[in-house]
Structure formats: C-alpha cells, structure tokens
Amino acid sequence: MSTVKKALVPSVTEMMAWTRKIFNQGIRRPGYSADFWAENWIKEQFETMGLQDVTLDPVPVKKWEAGDAKLKIWRVNESNEVLDIPCFPIPYTKPKNNLEAELCMISNKTSMSGKIAVSELELFKFPVKAIKAYSGVDRYYDPEHEFDNMEQTIPFDYKMSALLDRPMNNGIAGFIGILSGYPWETDEYYVPYDAVEREIPGVYVSRDNGKKILKFIKKGTVRARLSYRAKISEVISHNITGTLKGMSDEWIIIGTHHDGPWNSAVEDASGMALVLAQAKYWSQVPKEQRQFNLMFLMNCAHMAGGRGAIAFAEKYKEFLKKVVVGIHLEHVARDVKSENGKLIPLDDPTVRWWFVSRIIPLEEIVEEAIIKENLERSILLPPDGFPPGRDSPPIDGSFYHLEGIPFVSFLTAPSYLFDTADTLDKIHQESYEPLTQAVIRIINSLEDHTADELRSLVLSKKERKKIRRNIK
Q1: Which of 28, 80, 115, 128 could pair with 260 as two cysteines, CB 3.0-4.6 Å apart?
Q2: In whole angstroms, what is the distance from residue 282 CA to residue 440 CA?
Q3: How many other C-beta atoms can be found within 10 angstroms of the C-beta atom of residue 7?
Q4: CA dihedral 266, 277, 297, 447 (to 10 degrees)
Q5: Other CB atoms closer than 10 Å to residue 74's CB: what's the count?
Q6: How large a percentage of the chain has pLDDT more than 70?
C-alpha cells in the first residue's frame, strides 16, 4: 500500500509557483501584512482543493516591528573620527533613543555596568558523522558516503540567549553582536524569535563592520551612540486547518507553519508548498482509498515563540488522542558555499533531518520511504536530546512529542535560514516531488497501525539504546 499515484502528485513547476507567490508577498513575520495575506491565500487553496471544515483559529501573538537603526562609534581621544556602522535591531529587544556609553568586550573579569557590551558570534558547526553517531538510531541514507567528511553549519549561536539575558545581573546598558563567524556578510539575522522581551537595546553588525569596531577598541577607549525604534504589539494571527475524511475514525495530521523571518523561501514557503502538495494529492484520492482521516495544518507564529503550535495543541488536546502520527514538513533547502562574503547555491541538498518517535516500526517506515525516493543525505534523529540538553526536537512540531503523539518531522537547518539570504535560489526544488512521494509512502504504510498501538510501542532512551547495541 506504499504505492504512489504519481499522476496525482503536483509537479515541481506547480510547487515552485506556490513558493514564488508566497515569497513575493514580502516579509511574513507574525502580524505583518504578507502573513495575513498568506492566511487568506492558504484558506482559498484549501477550499479550492475541496478540503472540508476549513477553519481559521485566532491566536494572540506578539508582533515586533523595528527600524531606523543607527550606530556611531568613536575613540575618546580622537572624537573627530566617527564611524557610522550599519546594524540590525535584535528581535524583541527594548529600544532606547540615543543610548551613549563606553564599549567593552563582554567579559567575566571586568565590570560592564553601564557599558555597551560587544561579543563576536559564530554559527555552530557539527561534523555530520557526529550527528549520525549521536542520533542513537543508526538509520541514515548516505549512498555517496559523504557524511564522514562533511561539516554542517547550523543557523544558531548558542551563546546568544545567555548574552542577552546577562544584563539582569551585571547592569549592561546595551549589546552589539558581531556576526564574525558567519560564512557571508550580513547583519540581518532574525534570532532569537522566542518573543521574550529583553530589557536592553541590542543590534547585530556584519563581520566586516565588526572588524572596524574591534580595531577601534584595540586602540583605546571607545564610545558609541546606539538608537533604533521598535514596537511590540499584540495582534491576532491564525492557524488554518482543513480536513479530508477517510475510512477510519483516526487521523493523520500533515502540517507546517506559514510565517517566516523575512520573505523566506526555505523558511517556510517551501514547507507550505509541501503541505499544499499533500492536500492536493489526497484530495484527488477517493475517500475509500484514504485509510485515515487527514487534517492539514498551517500554524502561525513560529517566529513569535511558536505560539501557533502551542495554541493548536491546547485547543485540540482531546482530538490529538485520535492521531496515529503527526507529520511536520519544513525547509526544502539547497546547500551553499561562501565566496567573497556571498553565498553560492550548490547542486546538493542541505543535510536532511528526520525527527522520529522512538517506535521501531515507524522508524522502519520512514527509512524505507527515504530509500525508495533516493533522498540522499538523510539522517533519522531521536525526538529529544538533539541538540544536547533538549527534551523535545528544535522544530515547530515539537508539541507532538511533548503531547505523547507519534510523529515524523522533516526539516533541514541551512546556515542562512533566518537571514535575507533565504531567497528562491536556495530552494532545492529537485527534492519537491521525491519528498512529497516519500510522505505519501509513509502515510500509506501506516495502514495497519493504530494510535493506541503505536503509542504502546514507544521506547525510552535506554530501551532504544539497548536495541541498538544488540543489533550491533
């Protein structure tokens, strides 16, 4: 029953047309006009495809707007030489008009009280063989044997939250994050997006502009004047759902989020295209050939603390007990390289992460679908512990795991995910059709399983580790 009716699968041309249309609307942050457009457009698409019970569920979210950022620095002994440094306000930080203070490198050894702290930031890099080993699953698809010689740069610096939260204890007046270890020249980095309001102003500056600041600091006492406007307001965004009835009382959910930090092709116009492709495919399959009821979900506010996913889990708590598997789809990303401060798209996809509940039959189903569709550079990952210390995966659909629901979540983590560099040329469009077909295979292969049965097969970390050891 894992057969795919290929004539019903939307073409890459159609999926790219959806992606392009979404991208061209503009910045899709929660509460922005492009995201409101996306909500209504999704509703229209669901209705046109014949989905039933198409619903917009209102969700209160924090909208963050900022602009007019200015940063001037000068050496105290040479105040006639003033540098104007382009910068980007850090999301959800508190603005202050014309904050003037001394600059200092962030340190535990010297007082930073009343000063603007400066820190160099670097995206985290993983050897892919370490991710593969850490997964504890030993399920991956690497037919070209690339993983042992690959390094993956992911779009986070794990110091960020700690640095921004330090002022509570040490009286820092402001913060400048230099994007020194970024593979391209940028200051437009939309992180953190947890919608936590920080009490100090903060900005990012690019690698090359950061070098100018560091050069000034090395030559003596430096002062800066920092200013930008910002506003946080509560607005109503929406989760959008639509359904197709099948031959069971149980459900499969196929979802993603509709907002993004910028125009954001990969994050997450590409995920929206994957969900639309599933909706269109299954709407053409006769009801008697749909083993389960299907719900298609486009939730809001991923970029505002994941509020849409949280609200969905709260509203549908009883309904979720009937869900056999939740499937979440994000980020059809192209790998890149850096040349002269710019990102150059490559032919290959970014390493694909498949977070899967610790259920052996579900792991087997996902692995088989990946191999049949030749989705190289794929790794199955556990539902917790990656990155280290987490009790749920770093995904918009993590609520499935937290609610005890079997889930499969596809995503990638390219370095440019939260930057304006996430443009249409970063879509690995060659993956659109095989990814769509792999998800269809997964759904068809679940035919003989039930929600209660799969829940009964969930393994603990210790139990899964023991199975892994015995297999070896």
Answers
A1: 28
A2: 9
A3: 6
A4: -120
A5: 18
A6: 95
CA 210 – CA 225 distance, rounded (Å): 15
Query: How far apart are alpha carbons 102 and 112 in whole angstroms?
Result: 9
Q: What is the pLDDT of residue 254?
A: 98
- In this predicted model, what pLDDT tens digit does every residue of 274-287 receive, in sequence order? 999 999 999 999 99
**pTM for the full predicted model:** 0.94
Residue matched to tokens 């059709």: 433
Of 45, 46, 95, 40, nearest to 68 by C-alpha is 95
Q: Which residues have C-beta within 8 Å of that of residue 316, sequence separation ≥ 6?
A: none
Among the ranges given (216-225, 355-364, 461-470), the one the predictor scored with the smallest mean pLDDT: 461-470
Handedness of CA 257, 261, 263, 268 (dihedral sign): negative
CATH 3.40.630.10 fits 6-63+234-471, yes or no: yes
Q: Could you give the residue range(s) of every CATH 3.40.630.10 domain in the chain?
A: 6-63+234-471
- Domain(s) labelled CATH 3.50.30.30 in the chain stretch across 65-136+155-230
Tens of pLDDT, residue by residue over 36-89, are: 999 999 999 999 999 999 999 999 999 999 999 999 999 988 767 899 999 999
Tens of pLDDT, residue by residue over 309-318, are 999 999 999 9
Output Rg (C-alpha) for the chain, integer angstroms: 23
Contact at 8 Å (CB) between 275 and 263? no
DSSP, collapsed to helix, strand or coil, labels residue 164 as: helix
What mean pLDDT comes out for the span 157-165? 67
- Return d(Cα 135, Cα 101) in angstroms, integer: 46
End-to-end CA distance of the chain: 31
What pLDDT does 169 receive? 53
What whole-number distance in Å separates Cα of residue 48 and Cα of residue 233?
Answer: 33
3-state secondary structure 27-89: CCCCCCHHHHHHHHHHHHHHHHCCCEEEEEEEEEEEEEEEEEEEEEEEECCEEEEEEECCCEE
Fold of 65-136+155-230: Glucose Oxidase; domain 1 (3.50.30)
